[in-house]
Amino acid sequence: MTEDLLLLPRGIKSGSSSGKIATLKHEKSNESTPNQVTENPDSGTTAEASSNENSSGSGEMNALQETLLKVEAERDSYKDQLLRSLADFQNYRKRVEADKQALRTSAKESVVLDLIGVLDNFERTITAVDSGATLESVIEGIKLIERQLRQMLEQHGVKKIDSHGRPFDPELHEAISVEVSEEHDENTVTAELASGYKLADKVIRPARVKVSKKS
Length: 215
What we know:
The protein is 59% helix and 15% strand. The protein has helices spanning 14-31, 43-130, 135-155; strands at 158-161, 173-180, 189-194, 196-199, 202-205, 207-213. A hairpin with a 2-residue loop joins strand 4 and strand 5 (202-205).
């Protein structure tokens, strides 16, 4: 860069103008650097806003993490409750099945004990026959055993189905044969070949019967 020369007018001393020349050079130097970086008054505000955004993002992330932890804790709690409920239900089923089995065993035991009593009377009857008992006494003993057995069955809820002379009912009867009969209405039970039985209201064996028809 070449130094600018200033011509001094006459009457002006060089010493007094040196300060003015220096001032002019300084101002001219300032004007010759237009690209000089100046301080941005908004830079502090931008940095502050960026910091606030980072802080806000960090807070949202923390909140999401806390929510996720709560959800996972609730999930684990529900899973634990479900497993406990399933275990309780399995134990309940086992207890119910055990109670049913115990009830069946108890019922069988009661029936068996009653049958043993009937068997005892059969053995006494056989002993009487071997001892020379009369036929009439033996027959009477057998009839007593038959009544005892029927009473035992009734005590356990077993009842005989009354079929003879009644209309044929496929729910109660099993037709073994059909016979022509003018004395009975059609589809009437004329003979009972094997007795039927009900346990409470359930037919456990239908009666085997003959059924009438018109010629």
